[in-house]
C-alpha cells in the first residue's frame, strides 16, 4: 500500500511540475516551486522502489517524505475550501484537488510506515490512535466548513 501511495504522489507531482509554464523558472518563487516538485517526485519514486525491494530505509523515507510533501492539516483544508468558495477556474481546481489527493496519500503512507517502524505494540497503537484522532478531527472540521459554505451559498 505504501508503494501505491508513493507512486500516486510521484505521478501527481510529475503532472503538476510539467503543467507549469517554462516561464515559472524565471522567478525565484517559480524556481523553488519547480524544485519542490522535482524533489517530491524523486523521493516518492525512491521510496516506492525501496519499499518494493524491502530496503530498511524505505519506511523512514516514507515518514520523511510525508513530512516534506505535506499531510492534510486544517490550514490546507481551509485554503481548499476558500478556493472552492471563490469559484476558481477548472485548472486551478484540478491542481488543488490533486494536492489534496497527494496529502491523503501521504497520510496513508505515514500511518503504514509508522506501523512498520514501531517495534513495541503499545507505542505503535498509541501513535496510530493519535494519527486517527487528528485525522477524524480534520475531517470533522472539513464537514463543518462545507456545511457553512453551503449555508452561505443558500443565503446568497
Mind sketching the topology for me?
Blueprint lengths: L1 H18 L8 H25 L5 H12 L4 H12 L4 H28 L3 H35 L1
The geometry reads as flat
**Helicity level, as a percent range?**
over 70%
Helix run count: 6
Radius of gyration: 17 Å
Largest sheet: none
Q: Structural class of the helices, strands and pairings?
A: mainly alpha
Please report the total strand number as a whole number: 0
Mean pLDDT: 78
How many domains?
1
* Sequence of secondary-structure elements: HHHHHH
The end-to-end distance, rounded to whole angstroms, is: 44 Å
Q: What's the short version?
A:
By secondary structure, this protein is an all-alpha fold. The protein has one domain (2-155).
What are the defining features of this structure?
single chain; 156 residues; mainly alpha; 6 helices; flat
Overview of this structure, please?
With 156 residues, this protein is mainly α. The protein has one domain. The chain has helices at residues 2-19, 28-52, 58-69, 74-85, 90-117, 121-155. The longest helix has 35 residues, at 121-155. The radius of gyration is 17 Å and the shape is flat.
Amino acid at each position: 500500500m505504501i508503494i501505491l501511495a508513493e507512486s500516486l504522489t510521484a505521478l501527481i507531482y510529475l503532472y503538476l511540475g510539467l503543467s507549469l509554464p517554462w516561464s515559472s523558472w524565471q522567478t525565484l518563487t517559480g524556481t523553488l516551486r519547480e524544485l519542490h516538485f522535482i524533489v517530491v517526485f524523486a523521493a516518492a519514486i525512491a521510496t516506492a522502489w525501496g519499499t518494493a525491494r524491502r530496503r530498511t530505509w524505505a519506511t523512514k523515507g516514507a515518514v520523511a517524505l510525508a513530512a516534506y510533501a505535506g499531510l492534510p492539516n486544517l490550514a490546507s483544508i481551509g485554503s481548499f475550501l476558500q478556493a472552492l468558495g471563490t469559484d476558481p477556474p477548472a485548472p486551478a481546481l484540478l491542481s488543488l484537488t490533486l494536492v489534496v489527493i497527494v496529502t491523503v496519500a501521504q497520510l496513508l503512507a505515514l500511518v503504514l510506515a509508522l506501523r512498520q517502524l514501531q517495534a513495541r505494540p503499545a507505542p505503535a497503537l498509541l501513535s496510530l490512535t493519535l494519527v486517527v484522532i487528528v485525522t477524524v478531527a480534520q475531517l470533522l472540521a472539513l464537514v463543518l466548513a462545507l456545511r457553512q459554505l453551503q449555508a452561505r451559498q443558500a443565503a446568497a
